[in-house]
Amino acid sequence: MKIIHVHHHYWPVVGGIENVVKALAEGMARLGHEVHVVTSTYGAGDRPREEVINGVHIHRVKSIRLGYPDLTYPLEAPRGVLKNADVVHGHSQNSLFTVKMVEEARKVGARTVVHFMAVDAFNDHPSRLIRLLAPRYGRWSVKKAIEISDVRLVKSFRDMEILRNRYGIEAEYVPDGIDEEPLRKPNMAEEFRRKYGVRDPFIVYVGRLHRLKGIDVLIRALAIAAKEEPSLKAVIVGPGDQRPYRELASKLGISDKVLFTGFVDEDTKIGAIDASVALTLPSVSNYVEVFSLAITEAWAREKPVIASAVGEIPYRVKHMVNGLLVQPRNPKALAEAITILIQDRGLGEKLGEAGKSSVVTWSKVVDMLLKIYSKASSPFNG
Description:
There is one protein chain. The protein has 382 residues and is an alpha/beta fold. Helix 9 links the parallel strand 12 (233-237) and strand 13 (258-262). 47% of the residues are buried. It has helices spanning 16-30, 79-83, 96-107, 128-148, 157-167, 181-184, 189-196, 215-228, 243-251, 266-275, 293-300, 313-316, 331-343, 345-356, 362-376; strands at residues 2-6, 34-40, 50-53, 56-61, 63-65, 72-74, 87-91, 112-116, 151-154, 172-173, 202-206, 233-237, 258-262, 278-281, 305-308, 324-326. Helix 1 (16-30) crosses helix 15 (362-376), helix 7 (189-196) crosses helix 10 (266-275) and helix 8 (215-228) runs parallel beside helix 9 (243-251). Mean pLDDT is 94; it is low at 378-382. The strands form three sheets. Strands 3-4-2-1-7-8-9-10 form an eight-stranded mixed sheet. Helix content is 42%, strand content 18%. It has two domains: 2-177 and 361-376, Glycogen Phosphorylase B (Rossmann fold, 3-Layer(aba) Sandwich), CATH 3.40.50.2000; 181-356, 3-Layer(aba) Sandwich (Rossmann fold). The N and C termini lie close together (5 Å).
């Protein structure tokens, strides 16, 4: 089968959707399928426009960007590649690049699949301008993606409900997965503690440093919780600008309680999760939480999760069953949840064990998608 994945970013750009597309593309290529990725030149640096990496054919097309990554517009389309595809799978209808490329694929007769993400999710965005303008774009992009797609997928039951109730269409649920490695590795807590010299109990955040991820809320919550638990620390793992968060920690007098590791390798990330009391995900907007791989990674290591009730999170994290849910943008509520798990490690173990049962690997997700591709239309060839 010839399969094409579409998104405005691909490796070497590292991020949530980018990592998902890479995992799917390489997983399908390993099974012997001819797999292509159509993406923009943004973030590729000096890499060639056309190359093959780990069996995946990458096509980077000239594009322009209107301020935001989602507003990346392709200036060309590899129609020859699209025309001969069995299926073109576009990731995120919020991406203008994805919508336009899938539209081109439809024009040349390819069968199309769109993974809908963060449907109508701009209304709680902290930026007043985005709250005003983005919902109009969001509604247009959803309607356009419905029009040009043969198969509609979601990775969030929130999005499934909105598509059904607001737009009158059904979508199939296909979640994101994780590599099997986090399920097999031995506990790596000691390696992390030794590497970074962290012996006190800590909560861990894993992800990019972005204002919608609520890292400022986490730091404020730490300042509150540390009054009751003076030895408590926070470890923040992931790429991004640390400066505003370091300044906030300094202002609150807790610089010595926050460790920023920056981007780390997989073993170090696993070690940070293993050594932590809990993963904390204090996101502040529906838009950034379509399917949290960090939550899945924590559950794979049998660690509890403390997360804001935004986006898909309350559909996966059930309060006092496999984690703790807190009101977004509420440092006091987050601090109280952190304190509960610091003081009751047995509860944390119970929640982490419960979460592990819902972990899905990439191999299973790839198998789910290949079955969907195959049954969607008889022209597909296995």
